[in-house]
Amino acid sequence: MQDSLILLVVLPLLLAFLLPVIARYLGNLSGLTGSLLLLFNILLLANAWNSVGYSPKVILLGGFAAPLGIVFYIDKLNMLFAILTTIIALLLWPCRTHNTDVREYVLWLLLLAGCYGVILSGDLFNIYVFYELLAVASYGLVTLPATGASYIAGFRYLMISALGSAFALLGIALIYSFTGSVNIAHLAQIIPDHLHHIWGYSAALLLIIGFGVKAELFPVNFWVAEVYSHADKRVTALLAGVVSKIAVLIILRFIILLFPWQDIFNFLLLLGIIGVIVGEFAAFYAQDLLRLLAFSSIAQSGLVIIAFACATEAGIMAGIALAIHHLLLKPALFLLASHCDRSINDLAGLAKSSPWASALFVILALSLLGVPPLPGFWAKLLLLQSLMAEQYLLLLVLVLLATIVEAAYLFRLFMLFYQRQEMPEQKRITIQGQELYPVITLSGILLLGLFFLPLFMDSLREIAMQTSNIEAYINTVLGKVQHIGEGNI
Amino acid sequence: MMIWDDIFLEVDFWINIVSIALIVIGIYGIVFSQHLLRMVFGLGLLEAGVNILLVKAGYQKEAIAPIVTQASDTMMSNILAATAQMVDPVPQAMVLTAIVIAAGVQALALSLVIRIYKKYGTLDSHVLFLAMERDRHLSLNQKD
Question: Residues of A with CB below 8 A from B45's CB?
Fold first, then answer.
């Protein structure tokens, strides 16, 4: 049954290449095929969710056994991210805009195929290839508005991203030359003990920095504000919400399975906290709404990295909660903000002209900040608890200070929204009802999640347990072949 | 001095030197050059260096190409014996993929460079960065 999950990657790729032909006959309707495909993917995932159950599964591609063949690894964490990716992509699918170019659909499908591939792959080199697929599609999508500024932002993004990919490839080359394998489960047996020296550390740093480009990790995230403020709003929402979280997911797998060394955790904690502080302060000084959200998403990614770098089950649980929360919330905020894309001071009195939109924005932003009883509060609480448990008190204080800065700029924004003064007539922003539809759905999911909080916490704990179980990962992938393959690897 | 002579005569050593030099020059080109085309060239050098290191991961001294030539070699034991003298084919497969990806990315980068030149008439990254910020500022303040 779970073998059908390979279709997640195959179908978007297939449709991407067929779509130009389909568009010739169906014209504007061709976008619908993409939505149908995403619906089908959701069904596929929902169907497989139960059959995966408590034990993770593995798909052997081409029928070759694990260390030599390529595998897709399927556990609840991967499935969860795949489902969320599909939901967000379905909500953001550019079908409703009438004059969408067929090339835009193709790029979206390629991006999604890359996302699924990265999520499911259990093989370093495959992750690299799918990551590149995702990256190349995103370069195309970023430059879609065809303005000069979007070209420049896209070029700078391409350069930093290609630099990151080269680093990642270098890391893979290092690992391969020491171990002769790129299968993650096989490497998880070798690297933690046998590569615990300078080359192992170099490979770890190269891989983390390489994949950190998309994860908005601190030293390689200057592209974030430029790209998010110049790209199309849907692309921005997808990159900020989904793609950055998928990159964080890869880093999580790396530090759990391949590099479980305290020095690497400390390094990530350092990068994470710098990212949080820099992001929040940059957001504090940002002049327009999109940049403010872009910087705040750097800070949120930093929080997720900190949680993961605690490397305890509680930390992983907190990180997944934060990641899911941000993954659902940031696209909604970006969609709302794209309607009022101007400098912050011009937004005074927004609540008068579009009361619903500003109310939604305030609720979502409060959840981002972590005000109880909104979902964001519970995610942040988990993070603080896991920091307490690990005795990272300085980090705890820094995270709280960063939250105060966050509160300062968000409340300044709310005050502006609810000022009495009217917007000048020619500058008034009114946000139509139907433009709010994806935003309402996303906030609905978030707020509904609140009612199922205990249930959700339980399944998160289960997922965190499964994720931190290295033995299970190795046994699932290599289990059946271990005794045959041992000699000649 | 004999040890040094040996090292200098090793192919291995020179391959490492060349690839690391390419990587360093490439990174320098991407980070410090002010001209967009030079950045693309830097990327090309960087990727070439990484690819050489990757393909070197499968290199063995005095090994042959990983092709089973004789029909009798299809016996399992013969294949195992033969692989001992062959270079590892996996990095070669990987490096082919990486080369194709790198070529695609560089082509995309060059096409962006052309678009940027058509819009702004310059390829100076500092000037272009300021132009991007100015465009953003204009679009924020002139909306409807």
Answer: none
